[in-house]
Amino acid sequence: MKAGVIVFPGSNCDRDAYHALRDVLGYEVDYLWHAERRPLDEYGLIIVPGGFSYGDYLRPGAIARFAPIMEAVRAYAERGGLVLGICNGFQILCEAGLLPGALTRNTGLKFRCRHVYVRVENARTPFTRRYHEGEVLKLPIAHGDGRYVCDEATLAQLRRNRQIIFRYCAPDGAIDPTWNPNGSVDAIAGVANERFNVLGMMPHPERACELLLGSEDGRRLLQVAG
Amino acid sequence: MPRARIIVTLKPGLLDAQGRVLQEALHQLGFEQVQGVRVGKYLEVELQPDGDPEEQIEAMCRQLLANPVIEQYRYEVVDE
Question: Could B21 and A109 be called an inter-chain contact, meaning their C-beta atoms sit closer than 8 Å?
Fold first, then answer.
């Protein structure tokens, strides 16, 4: 399988994603420069990586959504292609309207950089099919604007359609506000679109693919082929 | 030349984490009368005098300057 990792000015997790996909999973990987205009049909997975695209000017993700490559990502997603937005990538996908809701300043105002626990809420997606429902994953976060918010109607729809894919939890899987690192509504750490081919999440699965780095719980998430 | 002054803030129902911290800080300074603080952004946009500036600013706010999911905006257009 061939994966594409988008590179914006200010992306800083593009290399982590590249390493995880190529060196750990053995996929072919291309970097895709933000200014490129070309179809993405040859790829089995597109990663919108973490970082501070365009310096987070105005709002995180607000400018990246206008990058030429994003037109191709939109078309690719509409055709059912798999798109994974991580951290800043999640913010970009929300700004672009490919995912519902938005990400705002962490409740505690602090930039949170540590491992957290998330519970798999829906294992029937192309990204989570190698996990079982209720499984608890240990994944790193590193963000200042990760508090997921949406209006009541959207939240009800997300619950009804099972689009909430990950929620912050205690190590035993219990949902508890003290284990919610940023104040996200309903402890939401990741959501998918209605077709489940676009997933956005604040934790970094690409940095949790080798035990040497503290966890390999993220590896199966990137293993979308086969 | 028309110039728009735009103020973007979080919607009323949404927790403004920065505003809450500033409120606490103001209380510590002795400003006990402070009942709430909302932090926003102020933007100035210069326009060519061409067409309806309010309509143009409205479109800019909707499409980029504010995120309608979480933010509200207001503006005034002045001729300078």
Answer: yes
B18 token code pair: 């920065």
Partner residue opposite A105 with nearest CB, options B18, B41, B64: B18
Separation of alpha carbons A164 and A166, rounded Å = 6
Do B69 and A58 count as a contact with CB atoms less than 8 A apart? no
List, for residues B44-54, the tens digit of each pLDDT value: 999 998 889 99
| ipTM above threshold 0.90 | no
Q: How far is CA B63 from CA A52, A64, A161, B66, in A?
A: 21, 13, 28, 7
DSSP label at residue B18:
H
- CA pair distance A48, A199, nearest whole angstrom: 10
Using CA atoms, how far apart are residues A133 and B39, in angstroms rounded to an integer?
40
Measure in Å the smallest separation between the Cα of A41 and chain B Cα atoms.
Answer: 28
Residue B70 in contact with partner chain A when CB distance is under 8 A: yes
Rg (CA), chain A: 16
Q: Which residues, 6+ apart, have CB-to-CB distance to A187 below 8 Å?
A: A167, A168, A169, A175, A177, A179, A180
pTM of the model: 0.94
Return d(Cα A97, Cα A150) in angstroms, integer. Answer: 13
